Amino acid sequence: MTAKQTQKSSPLKKAHRHLRLAVVPHAANQYRPHLVRRYGLVAIVSLVLCLQFLPGNFAGGVLGERAPVSIQELLARTNEARKERLQPPLVLNPALAQAAELKAQDMISSHYWAHTSPSGVTPWTWFKQVGYQYAAAGENLAKGFYAADAVVAAWMASPEHRANVLGAYTEVGFAVIDGQLDGSKTRIIVAHYGRPAGATTGAVTEIAPSQPLGPISQLGVTIRTLPPSVLGSLAVLIVAAGVAAVAHVYRSRLPRKLRTTLYRHHGIAKAGGLLGIAVVIVLFQSGGQI
Fold first, then answer.
1. What are phi and psi of 167, to 5 degrees?
2. How far apart are CA 250 and CA 41, in angstroms?
3. DSSP H/E element including 269
4. Which CA distances in Å does 92 have to 11, 97, 117, 173, 241?
5. pLDDT in tens, 10-62
6. Alpha-carbon dihedral of residues 109, 113, 114, 115, nearest 10 degrees?
């Protein structure tokens, strides 16, 4: 190997050495990776805090900073889900869109979040108000979502909502409205599905989902609603927590002067703390509901 080749490889060797010191517990760093030492933790927390305060990061922030959810995109995502399950595509119907708009406006003006209003007005009232006669009808709701694919993914994660997305309908109408519920700004999305009366014979069917999502499904929905900067923060925290957990495995190799109760358990304590921060971020950012 020539001197020139040695010089070219030295920066890589330096980077490799610093990386090992930062994340791998070994004798050179006294089995305490620099990433989860005091200064490393300060850097991680500072980075995460900076990412959280980026514009548009909060569900309750200025809605103008969020890109609007497109009706065409909602239709496209819905029909993609139907196509994957061999269902015919839906077409937009202006009357159903008007019914969905009326329902969304009613929730904003009357301050409620439900299929049936506090005064007992059901979803089917809005169908009738716009003159839509149906053989089958359904309603899906969503709030706090800022991407069409996340909305449809959340509906598909719930059996009752999925039944509407994939139901025996031929038409759909969507409404997307920004407003205030429970004192905070949010975005409401209403989908009204329909099959016109006379299209097929049989009894009239009406579906308005009533079952909440399970914990696992709700977690999936929450993750789909998080902005990229938050997902990046979570990735950093999880990697750092993993490094701390690995360091805990090597606690028996700590130098004698560090074999105190505090240092012997520093890895697991820091891993738990970092994961706790990640959980707080997810809970704070979760705004999507169906």
1. -70, 175
2. 19
3. helix 266-285
4. 59, 8, 25, 6, 48
5. 888 888 898 998 999 988 988 889 999 999 999 998 888 888 777 555 443 33
6. 50
